[in-house]
Write the structure tokens for this entry.
Amino acid sequence: MTAIKLGVDSYRQGKLMAFDPRTEKILRAAARRPGYEGTGRNVEEPQEPEQS
């Protein structure tokens, strides 16, 4: 039920919200997370050998 309420409230307010399971409360602002910093280039995925 908490996930649904968070989704609805977040949509209505136009803000990202989060839930703290330790305190069991809704956070009005989500914690900052480190951003992904890639090289900006596409990388070839390793191909698995075909099995015959």
Notes: The helical segments are 2-13. The first strand starts at residue 18 and ends at 20. The beta strands are 18-20, 25-27.
